[in-house]
Amino acid sequence: MPLRKLSHLILLVLVLLTGLSVYFVAQLRFNYNFNDFYPAGDPDLAYYEKYSARFGNDNDYVLLGLEAPAGRTVFDSQFLTHVDSLTRFIQQRPHIEHVTSPTNATNPVVEGLGVFNVPYLHPAEPARRAADSALVYRTPGLVDNLIARDARAVTILFQTSPNLSKPPGDSMLAAVRTELARQGFAENQYHLAGKLVAQSIFVDRLQRELMVFMSLSVVLVTVLLWFTFRTWWGVVLPLVVVLGAILWGLGLMSACGVSIDLMTALLPVMLFVVGMSDTIHIITRYVTELGYGTAKREALLITLKESGFGSGLSALTTSIGFFTLMTSTIRPIYNFGLFTGIAVLLTFLLSFTLLPAMLMLLKKPQLRVPRSQGHSWDGVLGRMFRTVLARRRLVVTVSGLILAASIASAMQIRINSALLDDLSKNDPVKLDFRFFERHFAGVRPFELDLQPADGRTVYDLAVLRQTERIENYLQRDYGLNFLASPVTIVKSVRKALKGGLVEEYRLPDSESELRRIVNKIKLFRKKPEFRALALPDGREGRITGRMPDVGSIKADALNANLRRFLRQQTDSTVVRTRLTGSANLIDKNNENLTLNMISGMSIDIVMVTIIVLALFRSLRMTAIVLIPNLVPILIVAGVMGLAGVSMKVSTSIIFTIAFGIAVDDTIHFISKLKLTLQHEPNLFKAVRKTYLMAGKAVIVTSLILVGGFSTLIFSSFDGTFYVGLLIGLTLLFGVVAELTLLPILIIYFYKHKVKEIRQPVPALGG
């Protein structure tokens, strides 16, 4: 079939497939589901899912912190009236299951067969203010939970429906903010925290930042392409190819039912930047052949033949870099690796179908830069090549010293993350969360499952005493500022039976007294805060609480000490315990981060090694490919250690991605060298010619990659910022290693073994 007819057929098929992709892309939705970041397939996750089915999720709540006006305390009657009005308003909202507030907190008193709930606060009776405040400070569970110790702020906690999605969650939060404004609360007088708040903010920012990053990338790449090729088609055609690949990738993601989250939001920018490599290599080679006076058809065929091997191999190694992220147990990272890896292969497919078809259908372009002026690149690259080889000892020595220092610095990297790790320390959302850590119990949930031994219930006196011992440890040594358990129920009922006296808030002294208390517990079963602490039959209970977000390193140490205490200081024949909860699962991710990163990098390196060995059948060539690409990785690891950047979910992907991308230019260089050696017997001259021929494409693609990734530094998410910064630095160091270490290594390893390189280039489809 003639090339022009084949080109028309290819364009028709690709347009139809792109139209189908647009259909699916239109159905894409943004998602920030906190639960997606739990370790998939982990036994602790399966345990927590069953646990939450019995007791509810530990993060289905919103905290609303209200500051008293300047010069007043929270016991001011006017302020309390506003708090009570807000409490009633929130109780009436859809998807609200329960509201706990200082104005609806009551001191229950049992009289006869009934229970009388006496409010702790009486906003309408200013004369009782002194007595109310004194009682509040004497009552356990109110100060640091609902009322700040300095009496300058209060908290309203509202429990929401399980796993409430963004649209109804946004509506509920918007209604609360509107009511706050109506009641005269300025934005700096109230603070919101909780999973629902983070979910709302994150998704909105994802949508905004995705558009910003794509716009910046398109502008930046367009400018670089123009300065590189100085022709409209040299700019438009690469953009069409890569944007088409992005549509295909997002369309496939949508067709598989995957939404855009914090990780997959990087796919369009990542693919836009990475996907430019093949198109630039193809167009650069095509323009070079046209400059030699070759006819358009022959120039295109030569370009495809010579670029096919290197581009196919680089697409394979890049996609492997992304596919290795599928070793992660975190679903968003898994999806990001899978679909970005597939999209890289789709970009290669379009680069060798859509791009040649468009070049074939266009008229032979009039080159803007005459060949007589086209040696500027050759001149610069020629001088660089001579300087590198003349000072090769210095290059190797400096590289070795930098590498040693980087390895030493990289040893300082620690795995540490917090619940809002991706937000900068001055982010308004993070500042709101910090407010609750300064004035109240905190926002990090704590969960400990209590399972009495066979024949016992959580209301047995031995079980209660064991539970109280655990509570004392958690408050004294673990750092819980607020907690509740079946002990809370029993103590509260005992206090209610004793006329609501605070000093009676303690466990009973005898089994007979306990039996009387347990018989009365049924009077309190309608209280949601009691119902959530123990199953109706008493066969299982929980200790639940909140604390500051101390970070995973400290949390791991606290959990290790807690497990030791439970093992040594509690009687498992009375009650068995198990640490669980959403925070515990997030911490569990960090335990797997190092293993996932090492396994991902190892798989990436092994796969690249196998590919190089299979194609070049040479250990020397394997070393030549690996060394210039591992050196930048180690240097950036040193930068992370020096800058104190912690390893966490978002930054753990950096090394595998950077290695997979960085190895591309080496593959292109080696493949061009093999072709050059077919007609150039002298190794030095062949390396020099390859350096001049591939150098421009290597530099241009690296500049585009670095520039594209640098757009991510404008993100409000720290994780995205570091992905852009550190991958950009890796690629920047990579191009330096490519233009310095690579030619030195080739000449050193192959000065007497040229025949090992001079093998036929494997054909990729002709």
UniProtKB/TrEMBL annotation:
GO terms for cellular component: plasma membrane. It comes from the Bacteria. Keywords: Cell membrane, Membrane, Transmembrane, Transmembrane helix. Its main location: membrane. Residues 239-361 form the SSD domain. The chain crosses the membrane at residues 210-229, 236-260, 266-287, 308-330, 336-362, 394-415, 593-616, 623-643, 649-670, 691-715, 721-750. It is a multi-pass membrane protein. The keyword DNA-binding does not apply. PROSITE patterns: SSD. It is found in: Cell membrane. This is SSD domain-containing protein. It comes from Hymenobacter jejuensis.
